[in-house]
Amino acid sequence: MLAETICSAVSAAGLGIAAVTAYRKRFLAALRITAYSLIPVGLVMTGAVGWLASTAFSPLAWAGFGVLGASWALFALTRAVERRRGIRAERAAAGDGKATPVSPSASAPALRRGTARGSRSATSSAPGSSASSGSSGSSASSSDDFSDIEAILKKHGI
User: What is the pLDDT of residues 55-102, one digit of tens each?
Assistant: First the structure.
């Protein structure tokens, strides 16, 4: 009963402010204030305010919120423990040398292209090469750069 009265008073005050705003020729703002001021009355009419008031003063409802909070805390705790165990397992595997973070087959194409690019750049910068071969060497290295990018995109399925 008290909650409904308070909501009605808030709505009446909002409608009064909207009327003053409309009097000042700010009609869009007045419509927006009217919309906000009708929300409390609508909540009272739907029964949401009564449900909220009965829930707020119910010890059983608060016990339920406590149980939900405890459940959430347990989920968070188990997730944190799983993360710590996963990090420790990764560190132990990396320290033993048993597992590598990247599989050898995934990095093999990049290594082959890197060695081929290095040999091409070494031949183009050889001491007797002319200026025109230097420009063709830069186009070859740029095509190698694009082939590396293409290989990465193909590896990820793009």
Answer: 888 888 889 889 999 999 999 999 998 888 877 777 777 765 555 555
Calpha distance 146→117 (Å, rounded): 12
Q: Which of 53, 46, 51 is nearest to 6 (CA)?
A: 53
What would you measure as the largest C-alpha separation in the chain, in angstroms?
Answer: 98
Distance CA 19, CA 9 (A): 15
pTM: 0.42
> Using CA atoms, how far apart are residues 16 and 27, in angstroms rounded to an integer?
14
Residue 96 Cα distances to 35, 82, 93, 99, 109, angstroms? 66, 21, 5, 8, 26
* Cα–Cα distance for residue pair 72/89, rounded to 1 Å: 26
pLDDT in tens, 23-47: 999 999 999 999 999 999 999 999 8
CA distances for 44 relative to 1, 39, 47, 113, 127, angstroms: 10, 9, 5, 71, 89
